[in-house]
Amino acid sequence: MATESMEIDDSLYSRQRYVLGDNAMHQMAQSSVFLSGMGGLGIEIAKNIVLAGVKAVTLHDTKVCETWDLGSNFFIRKDDVSSQKMRVEAVCSRVAELNPYVHVDISSSILDNNTDLRFLQKYQCGNKFGASCPPQFLSCDAFGVCVRVFCDFGDEFVVSDPTGEEPKEIFIQNITQSNPGVVTCMDNRPHGLQTGQSVVFREVNGMEELNGTVQHVSVLSPHSFAIGDTSQLQPYAHGGFVFLMKTPKTCRFETLERQLSDPQVLTPDLSKPEAPLQIHAAMLALDTFQEEHNRLPNIGCLQDAEVLLKLTEEVSVNAELVRCLSRTARGTVPPLTAAVGGLASQEVLKAITGKFAPLQQWFYLDAMEILRPLHSVSPEEFLPRGDRYDGLRACIGESLCQELHKLRVFMVGCGAIGCEMLKNFSLLGVGLSKSSGEVCITDPDLIEKSNLNRQFLFRPHHIQKSKSTTAAEATYDINPDLQVEAHLNKVCPATESIYNDSFFSRMNVVVTALDNVEARRYVDSRCVSNQRPLLDSGTMGTKGHTEIIVPNLTESYNSHRDPPEEEIPFCTLKSFPSVIEHTIQWARDKFENAFVHKPSMYNSFWQNHPSPEVVLQAGESLEGSFQVIKLLNRRPSQWEQCIAVGRLKFEKYFKRKALQLLHSFPLDTRLKDGSLFWQSPKRPPTPVEFDLKDPLRVEGNDEPHAVPHFFWLSQDLSEEVVASILSEVRIPEYSPLDKVSISTDETAKKPDLIKMPVNSEEEREAITHLEQAISTCGITSGDALQMNPQQFEKDDDNNGHVDFVASASALRARVYSIEPADRLKTKRIAGKIIPAIATATAAVAGLVALELIKVVGCQEFESFRNCFFNLAIPVVVLTEPAKVKKTMISNIYFSIWDCWTILGHEDFTLSDFMNAVREKYGIEPTMVVHGVKMLYVPVMPGHSKRLKLTMQKLIKPSLDRRYVDLTVSFAPEADDEDDLPGPPVRYYFSSHETP
């Protein structure tokens, strides 16, 4: 991918392409970056921009590898230290391994005021070199618990796409004939526009002069906006939609010299809005200290701290901040550098591509919260001890380092975030074997090529190997002292015997690094029941979030529910698509039905029926076998038959369905209120005539795409051969049906075709088909009674799966006059691909690992931070977690973290249990449930007799089961109120058990 003419390697970059777009990808492939400084922050930025796919990176550094570097630079090894290798030489090959498309070279020249720096002009982006620097440059620094980023992209920097958000079609309900014209959205749906943005109008009926015009928006409400003068236009009739235009934006930057005295800063933590300017002043004083003393302040040196404080006398700076900065400046907090490195790397990509709004112009982040419990700690705690943790020790002290070493962490998922978390664990020394620590990781997935773009622990030779075991081996390479145990399991109810209470009680912290929401909810429930902290995070493109869940302090992941994903109504998919997402989902459903559902149903049927003759002889109802017999009779045995089937499918889906729809609902059909049936968002279909010479090209593809891919089932068949076969296909004469039921109910669900009743005529037809299959094809058993279901695989470009969906979607889009999507967009929607990029992943993992330090340090609630960021805008928002809610029953407070306990014995009855709850907690239990089994519900017949039964007999526990968690409801305080749910009641089967 060295030049624009070369194709983008989609198998590697597919997830990133959805974030950056192809134009930005091509710009990166022609851009060079100069990166000076191979400390922890520098190597983080190098990793991210090489994974992204720039043309070339020059790594610059003048220092020799030291033991200290092992705690911050994950590409330096012990051998590099012992051999006194230059840092830049040690990391070069390991950085280059990340991406074969990127040329990585090195420089160890001294760059100072005596150096001719004009060579830097050949780079599109660089750092730290003032007037001689490239047109766009960034300066990044990490000093202990404080980090900063500064951007200067010049006087006029054009941003092609400030937000990166995909424009959505906004359907119109009405447009007034006035000055200004007021546009109201369909069904009062929010438009999401901002005043000053521009929109384009399409398919407006009546006020047709608006179509194709660009109008500036003035927002009136979430559901309406004003445009230009429409008073002289024709009256609005119906229909139409607008979509947002991406308007380039010019950003202007001030020089570093001007910004030093009047900084423009981003404020990440609104609970301390003064922090960025305070850190700005403190770090400028630190710069002065370095210039005057040619060094950083010494660790724990009170005299140096006072000198630094004196340098801030002219501005009002928090003295505690300055002293903390002085004490930790030589140190490093790896998660903090990872977080800011992710943000800085994204700014590098913005500088190269003009994609997304750049940082203007300073970003400061601190980890002061991790220092709060350390003020009374002896100064000796922070002094170097000659190992890889000296940099971290300078910031958090020896005792907290030891707690990290002893930590036992369970991490679910070893994908992008998982790889980044393992890097942070390695640098922090989390889970050392000599300290009886442990990192247990689990992931059932295998490594794919598309993973390599952001899951930086994996290389091409790892493809199709286990993620968890490969990640464990790569982690040992960074820090051989870790104890990493790799599993290949999903974490779900099916693996509860492995990840049981005993397992969770052994772990100190749980980390989720996966996409699946249901899996995260399950892990959260296990953490709550076992009183374990959970660190959760996720990314989508340039967006990321983190959530810290601490027992008895915060709410849990399950305490809040995301809004359900909006489903497309079945009638819309079947008959009334209005946007490209509808046609893509329709095509995806057709794939699933034809290549997965029907073959699976077919196989299942013949597994239960030995042969077709047996089915006939049995004389059983054909209701369950009607579809199977149709498949058996129509199943092609030759390529020519496949093509014939495809031709008939084309006729059915893209011509006859449209003709039937127009027959049932002619264009002049009106609703009961007199309005037209066919008005926005409903689009009337236009039948497509089959023409092999009309390839229906799809934007973004050079090759004919839609129609040919519907038929090109074998590369051995030429266009002439296919044309010849198609000419022999007999197309039955079409006549519309008058009694076809076409649903317009948006609440109706898709019917189950297998369970739909079959009439006697269809049964007779099925019997005839089955007899024909036996007599003409001699089908009795064997291969003919087995099909090969094709699970949709989006990342294999040779299997034709995405091609089928793209072709079918584009054809249906033509039927309904919808703008088709290119193959890339179709693949993303059909495959439900989550856009991803290494910068956001690195940032989110760094922020999570920072919270891990706080958890280990047993911090107070006020110290913890959740985060949401969008690196595209950019915005970073740090907030306190949601504080745990307390519920009161009869003067007893409890939360989601509480679990009441009752100790029983072999003869302990249900009545004994209820009496024990009443006596211990002073509340009257009214109902007892175990999972989905109701043990005691007074209104249920016969349940009063259960009071005499033992808990053993009622629950029937396995021999190794020590306890069960029961759901108990309690009597309300007022007669007219419902029963009150309490916390789980953990019943131990033996009083000898220790809760």
Structure characterization notes:
With 995 residues, the protein is of the alpha/beta class. Among the domains are: 31-135, FAD/NAD(P)-binding domain (3-Layer(bba) Sandwich); 136-162 and 252-309 and 316-368, 3-Layer(aba) Sandwich (Rossmann fold), CATH 3.40.50; 169-245, Ubiquitin-activating enzyme E1, FCCH domain (Elongation Factor Tu (Ef-tu), domain 3, Beta Barrel); 578-635 and 673-704 and 738-817, no CATH class; 886-988, Structural Genomics Hypothetical 15.5 Kd Protein In mrcA-pckA Intergenic Region, Chain A, CATH 3.10.290.60. 34% of the residues lie in helices and 15% in strands. The chain has an 8-stranded mixed sheet, sandwiched between helices. Strand 8 and strand 9 form a beta hairpin. Helix 13 (416-428) packs across helix 27 and helix 25 packs across helix 26 (823-830). The chain starts with 9 loop residues before the first helix and ends in a 7-residue tail after the last strand. 41% of the residues are buried. Residues 697-715 have low confidence and may be disordered.
Features:
single chain, 995 residues, eight-stranded mixed β-sheet, Elongation Factor Tu (Ef-tu), domain 3, Rossmann fold, alpha/beta, seven-stranded antiparallel β-sheet, FAD/NAD(P)-binding domain
